[in-house]
Amino acid sequence: MAHAPAALVIIAYRDASDSIGYTRLWLATGSVDVARAAVATRIGVLGALSGCAVTGYSITWSTHLSDVPAPGPQLVSTAGIFIWQTATADAYAVTYIPGINATMLDATDPAGLAINTQKLEVINYIAVLRDGAFVNPFEYDITALENAFVQFEP
Amino acid sequence: MKYLFPLNYGERCILVPIDAALVPLISGALNKFQSEYIWNTSVDYELGYYAFAELQANLVNNCLQDLVDSNNRLYRLLDTSLNGTAYSATPATSPPPAAPADPTRPTFTPALPVVPPAISPAVMPMFALRARFERVVNLLDNLATGQQFPAVPAFLSSDALQNNVGLREKLTEMQGVVNAGWFGIGGQEATLADVVTALRLGSAEDKTKVLTALDAIIGASSSATIFNTVRELFTESADLGLEGAQFVVLLVATMSQIVSNTFVGQQLDRIIRSLDGGGFIPPGDSVLEALRGDDQADAERNAASLLAELRELLKP
C-alpha cells in the first residue's frame, strides 16, 4: 500500500446558472485537523479571485494499493447497501460496498436480496463500522445496523 | 434543480407492494437522494438523507417491520389470553455485531411457534381462558351428570369435582314421596300440586280437622272443653307447619272472645236475677219485692217519701 504525496483539496465555485467549477490544490501531508485549519484560513484568499461564489470544499487523502490484484468477477453495479442507526434516533447512515460478493447474500427469503449478517466477513464489517471511528454525514456515530441488502447502482 | 424536503413528512404512510426482484433497482434509483447537491438547503439535505435511508431500509422489511411486530404482539396477546403463555421481554442493550441493538425491539421469550402448541387445558396456567372455560364446562358437567373430574393444581379453586349424582337424580331426591307406607316404602312421587295442596288450608284433611274442632266447640259444655279443643287444633297445625295455623290463631282469638262474653253474660244474669228475679215477668223473692212488697211504686209510695215521713215522725 502506498500513500499519495499530498492531500487533495477541491474547492467548489457556483455561478448564477448553478453551474459548478472547481479548484484543485494539494496540501502537505498532515492530520485532518491541520488540513482543515489550513484550508479554512486560506479559503477567503482563494475565493477572492473569482466572481463566483465559493460553496464548499473537500479534502481527500488518496491511498493506492501497491499490489493491485486482477479484477474480480463481480460487477461493481451489484452493490451492497448498508443502512445504519446512529446515536441519534431516526438519524441514519448509508454505506455501500460495490460489487458485493454473492456469497455474502442470504439464502433465505427473500433469497439473493438480503445480506447475510451471520457471515464472518459481514460481522467484521459491522464491527468496524460500529467501532466509533465512523459517523454519518452529519457526524452522528454509527451504532447499529438497521438493514442490509443488494442494490444496483452503488 | 434543487429539491425541498416536504414539510408534511411523517404524517401518513402508504404501502406500496414491490416485487422483491425490483428492490435492488428501486433502491439504486433512490441513491441520488443521498447526495447533498440535489437539495435546496443543508437542512433539506439532512432530512432527505434520513428519510430515504429509512425508505431504503424498509424495502426489505417484508412490508414493514412495524406491521410484523404488531402482528406478533397480537399473537402474544391471544396466546396469553387463550393458553396462558407467559412472555417476557429483554431489552437488546448489548447485542452482537451481527444482530445490532434496537431498543424499541426487545427480545421476547419464548419465541413465537410456527404452529400453536397443543396444550391440554388441565396443565394451563389458571388465567388461560381455555383452561377457565374447561373448568366451567367441567363444573356444569359434574353438576348435571355427576361426571367426576380430578383436581387441577394450576387453579386457585383446585378441588376435584367429586359430585357423583346428576341434577335429575338430585331433584328427584328433593322431590320426595307422598302416601308412603311403612318405613317410607311405596307411595308416589310428590308433584307440585301435592305441595300446594299440603300448604293450603283448603285441603280435605285440614278442612275435616277444622270442622271437627268447630263441632266440638259448639257442643262443648264448658269453656275448658273449648280451650282444649282449640289448643289441640292449634298444636297439630303448628307442628305440621300448615298455612292454616294462622287461621287457627284467629279462630282461637275469636273463641276466647266468645267465652269471655259468655262469662260476662252469666254474671249479668245473676245480678238481674238477684234484683228482680229475672225474666220478663218478675218472680217473687227478689230484692225489689223485699223493699216494696207486691204494690207498684209510684210518686208517693217510694223509699224516699217513706224516709221523709219517718224523719217528720222522729222529730222531737
Order of helices and strands of chain A: EEEHEEEEHE
* Rg for CA atoms of chain A: 20 Å
> Segments of chain B where pLDDT lies below 50 for 5+ residues?
94-100
Beta percentage of chain B is under 5%
- Order of strands, main sheet of chain B, comes to 1-2
Instruction: Give helix % range of chain A.
Output: 10-25%
Give the overall form of chain B: elongated
Through-space gap between termini of chain A:
25 Å
Number of E-state strands of chain A = 8
- Strand arrangement in the largest pleated sheet of chain A: 3-2-4
Radius of gyration computed on alpha carbons of chain B? 53 Å
Structural class by SSE content of chain A: alpha+beta
What would your notes on this structure say?
In chain A, strands 3-2-4 form a three-stranded antiparallel beta sheet, covered by helices on one side. In chain A, strands 7-6-8 form a three-stranded antiparallel beta sheet, with no helix packed on it. A two-stranded antiparallel sheet of chain A has the order 1-5. The longest helix of chain A has 16 residues, at 32-47. Chain A is built from two helices and eight strands, in the order βββαββββαβ. Chain A is an alpha+beta fold and 154 residues long. By secondary structure, chain B is mostly helical. Chain B has a domain at 194-276. Chain B is built from eleven helices and four strands; from the N terminus they run H-H-H-E-E-H-H-E-E-H-H-H-H-H-H. In chain B, the strands form two sheets. In chain B, strands 1-2 form a two-stranded antiparallel sheet. In chain B, strands 3-4 form a two-stranded antiparallel sheet. In chain B, helix 7 (204-218) runs antiparallel to helix 8 (223-240). The interface between A and B is medium-sized, with 37 and 30 residues.
